[in-house]
Structure prediction request, 112 residues.
Amino acid sequence: MTAAATGRDAVAGTVARVAADVPGVAFLRPGLADLFRSSARTAPRSPAGRTPAGVRVSRATGSGPWEVDVQIVLRRGHRALTVARAVRDAVTAALSEAAPGAQVTVTVTNTV
Prediction:
């Protein structure tokens, strides 16, 4: 695994943990493989070695800032805007040292 892939996976893992812990977030949007997994009765998890579902991390250039896209599913009774802002702020704060200047986008995909 390259250093860039390792860095990307570390950022994605941090983003997934932080976003899932924000009040109002039910879970990160599951990927297609997670939806078809027969044993998935709880919130979808990502197997070791895979980028967490609901998180995309990339760079436009090799040394540019990280671009982070987080897709979440809300718990019923929470305002989408409030939770999305809380996720964005929490992820930005968590990445302030490891990935300064990261551009974080949060999308609410559903409510449960």
